[in-house]
Amino acid sequence: MYKNNSLSVTLLFLFILLSISIVYGDGVCTLNKNEYNPGENSIFNCVCTLPIEENQDGYFVWRDSTGDVLHSVSMNSGNCITNSFSNNYIFNYQSNYSGNVTFSLNENGTGTPINWGGVRDVNYDTFNVTGPSIVDCIITPNYYVNITNKNERVNLGEERVLEFIVIDALTNYTLTHVQCEVILFDSRYNYPIFQEPFKTYNEHHVETGAYGLGYITHKFDDKLLKPNSTYYYEVNCYCLNNTDESCYYGDGGLGAVAGFKECTTDSLFTTGDDLRLKDSTTTESYDKQNFNSLIGIILMIIILLFSSWLLTSKFEILRYILLTLSFCLGILAFVMTINPLYASVSTFILYLILILLFVTVSSYIIYFQIKRINSKKIKNPIDRFRKR
Fold it and tell me: Is pTM beyond 0.70 here?
């Protein structure tokens, strides 16, 4: 009976792992949003989870609903498992049209790149360019630049400046005194890495000055940043009417109060060389991400070979405890294996697994104690009868 149970549980465990692998086996491309104002920046971003989808050539092609090509740029999927590949296009100042963006084999938007034609692959997204409303503004990022030498690639450990311009979406007048902040995300838009300005004291936002120009300074020594990788940054701006956070029209607007305004945009940049000090809070954490991936693979192999033996143990409570521990470690190993970027989260996951294990072990102990007590209660009357 133990052998049959062992085989069943082992097959179930393998089925769970394979099912999760299939779910993650997708190449997916998405726009940063689907509704745009004229003049806004659109970003098309693609990620993958299978090695055969990496390093494939193609084109990002923006087309309107009539099939006319608005923008086409040559792309390569690169190391898309750990680092997305992206490009952007700023919509012209016409409104009320729609279309789609595709990762295509040909520059006119036709064909599918090699190994990107699976049933779960999504290599396109749709957009609508509508007329702006009275509360809309438009943010145009200038990209992260060096103060003395403009360079699109950001070397880790250096201080850089993000410049951006905010204009009114209806009149195209620049807006001064707009309140703005910047949030940097990983390439898959899963988690924020930093926010500027950091919300302490009264420095919640930066304000745009003359000609609607704003800038934010940051030193790129954050431990989650990796060299030669692409990242998103999100710029959020707003202004309120008749308050200390009012904004004003520039250019031909003659300094009039602009009223309530709100706008958000995304952009991306690529990191360069790693110039950070090699200590425990910077590049060492990047090395640990690769190490965690290797440890995850080793754990998965050991657990798969060990799972059959667990159910053959003669001690029932030990079998259940070891099986639970094996399953929990298997989940952790798989998370560490599929994406090294999750290494920073692995400690949190480990704590959850330990809590689950503690609760499970406690439940098993209580269960078997109750079972033992109940069995004694049943046997005691019989023993008394025999003694008589």
Answer: no
